[in-house]
User: Fold these one by one.
Assistant:
Number 1:
Amino acid sequence: MTLAPAPFGRVLTAMVTPFTDDGSIDLEAAARVAEHLVANGNTGVVVSGTTGESPTTTTEEDGRLLRAVIEAVGDRATVVAGVGTNNTAHSIELAVQAEKVGAHGTLLVTPYYNKPTQEGLVAHFEAVADAAGLPVMLYDIPGRTGLTIAEDTYRRVARHERIVAVKDAVGDLQRGVRIMADTGLAFYSGDDVLNLGWLTHGGCGVVSVVAHVAGTQYAGMVAAVERGDLAEALDIYRGLLPVVDVIMNRAPGVMTAKAALQALGVLDNRAVRLPLVPVGDELAAEIRSVLDAAGLLDPHRK
């Protein structure tokens, strides 16, 4: 089967933001993580999303982090800047900064906590898209924001030339198929457990947390779907289920992804910023064990 066009690439990771032990951003480690991702199946990275702990970083820190990642991998992969906040003026500031720094696109999450009307969503999305000349991926994740983007809202904002894609964490495949047909927006899976489902329902790719450690496998799954080998795609999906479970269901993904990257030797620590706390030693050991059982600690095994 032929997958839909993917404006930001097929396999992207919602990248963690590494910190030093004293809590400051570790730009050298960020470049190392980005290099690891691109060397292992990722065609793009999302910087300063929720998994990048964006609620705890400043605009200035976001700019330095984005610049470091672009310098590391921007000539080989799509670098998407997370610019979504619940303050339109701040999101515009971040989008303008992202364009100046050299990002290839922006990720714009539904405003959280203040729960605007659908009319407010349209105004917010269009204002941010108008502010910078970068393509925009909307991020629909009602479990975090308390608000779902309505189908009619998608139809309205899809008319904007720069709003081109959606990262979907709603999890309603039937709804997504309708929206894709009505709008032509490219849909990315924003939930690792549904990555295969979205690819077989018209999705164009994935924006993953688990791809921190399984980018090569996800790239293989995407390729298998594209050539019509669903048996192979399902085999890859099944093999990753324990990894998805331990990373996505035991603690917030940023915490477990950092523990997984430490197990791989990509990160020296698993430091996060409050209100998150680092994964404890017991869960860290379990994550290492699951990765080992899945063959992900051995670079020669797929």
Number 2:
Amino acid sequence: MNAAQLPAQPAVYLVVAAFLLAAGIYGLIRRRTLIGMLISGELVFSAAALNFMTVNRFLAPDPATGQIVVLFIMGLAAAEVAIALSIIIAVYRNYRSIHAPELTELKG
């Protein structure tokens, strides 16, 4: 797919980003497992990255700015996944479950 086939209006990208954000927030609220919450958080990161790239493509004078921010978001997401998975593994070893409602001893 070349650049001529991409939509020329930012509304298409912003609607997709809004859908990703809504699906991520819904998943964070409704999911009961820690893995589901982690995946939903990644959807929120993807929505933010898509918003940055949309603004970069249609409004920013320098195309590198949005790409640098998206690379930073991707690095942050990778670090978040690595740390979250290690925490999830530790929780599973101690409690034999990754269902969030069953982890009542973690309340402060």
Number 3:
Amino acid sequence: MRYVVLLLCLIFLIAPATRAPKIKTTEDLVQAMQKKYVKSWYKTATFVQKTTEVETDGTKKVSIWYEALSVPGSLRIDFTPVKDGNGILFTNNQIYVFKDGKTETNRPYVHPLMILGFDIYRLPPADALEKLKGLKFDLSILREDTWQGRPVYVVGAKQGDLHSAQFWIDKMNLYFVRMIRPAGKDGAQTQETQFNKYVRLGGGWMAPEVIFMVDGKTVTTEEYSDRRGDVPLDSKLFDPQYWTTVHWKE
């Protein structure tokens, strides 16, 4: 009888692993990401961002930004002091740049970090894949690698290619950790973005450290504090006509 019990326990432990679908394509990966978090990933979030910009001479400029997310599709950034009315709004596949409370520029834009870090969990799978294609990632390439000592999936580039457009997903937790893309007017430079030091936020995750690099040199770092998920937010926060009248942080 003891051996029967041990056998049943062993079967119970092995069964979840054997039932886990094998991820063989980018479509499989996106579906796995959504399946894991579609019911739990936060729909809204706010945080305070310390932004450090590194100049070519090594000097650093530090500023504080207030940010609000509505997933999928919208990110609002208020530069301090908020009363000056300066900032950026990403919404409805558009970018609005505000100066002195007025729209300075507006153009179509799909934010790759919004898609990879947040929206991918709440977009219909077909829409997520279509946006990734539009961002010039080769979705036919999927491989496995290691990043910061952890196994990852890499989409968009073969082994040894650290220049082509690609994104890296943590294999265990299925969150975004790294993006590499050509940059500069002729695409000769290499831009890299890292999402580091992930912590839990509600039923999802957030990386409180983001690093931007060009040709291996850090140009900007972001540190997130006062992180809050699933907070009530006025929809007018993400409507450009209400930029100066509605704020989540004064």
Number 4:
Amino acid sequence: MASTETFPELPLFDLQLQPQDLEAVAETLRSGWLTLGPRTAEFERVFAEHLGAKHAIAVSSCTAALHLAYLAAGVGPGDEVIVPAFTFAATATAAIYCGADPVFAEIVSREVPSLDPDDVERRITPRTKAVCIVHYAGYAADAERMKEICDRHGIALIEDVAHAPSATLHGRKLGTWGLAGAFSFFSNKVLSVGEGGLLCTDSDEVAAFVRSHRSHCMTSGTWDRHSGRTDTYDVVGLGFNYRLDEPRSALLLSRMGRLEQEIERRRELTLRYRSLLSGVEGIVVPFTDEEVHTSSAYVIPIMLEEDGSQGEVSSRLRDRGIQTSIFYPSIHRFTAYRERYPDVSLPITELASRTELTLPFYPHMTNDDQDRVVTALAEAVRR
């Protein structure tokens, strides 16, 4: 077998910042004000306007946004939050932070790896306080149906929009369908700055709760005191240090100007990828070409038809210098969750986790890069 040294590396993700991005951060560093301040407030204004939401509150991570969203929905000890297991662990972990139990529900299928509304409704109990849908890979879950179910049962709908900034359903931005939407600006995300997150909401009460609790429930922030608006503060509750800092906000503001352009490029590359992958036997490609046009086109997930071949196919691609990942292992199969919830069984989700591979993808990927990935994948699956 050829050594990996023979092949140039193709990473799963690759981020290219522009000179104006670097200058925006440098200007912030030169200003001498680095914690939560005016640049963060401006980014919140721009992002809320972009979403068509009344409020956008920047926080330190999407995990923090989910935690605050659940708390704002009234989630507490003894409550339940219905979540998918086919997602990053934070979707469930944030419920445990509140003292609640995550209740894992099935995805629809490997072709539609989004939370199944019918299964969600079957799992609603008197303890259910909220449902969190995940817009996996940047494609809309059935937020409309899920909102109808939640409204009928008097429970909150929370959206995990970590993958899907600017994606839409029926012309409406994802993150604006429920009580709150939680976004991620982690290093590998569509709008990435390293660490960071945001909560959006149309509720004045939720917004006030989140703004207070992200900064220790203080009645005034450091910027207020620095700028002379006040010289003291009170602490009115048990809050957290979930603030976003100014350099990251400056970088977000700079990158926001290219967000739609980069997403459009992602969609073009996704459609080309999908066309090439349609000729590869032995795989399932989730979602449809039509859905690409309203997605954020975050990642390229495929499902291997042969159960048990995931590790071998991934290894063969790695030998060709092609990095892959698994989006995602089932949360309920992790050690910490097996110990807490040993009886969870989700056959569709578990099959998806055992057969999914995420392929290399980023906006500056070339046609030659894509051709190389698909050719290597076809060979790896066929062997």
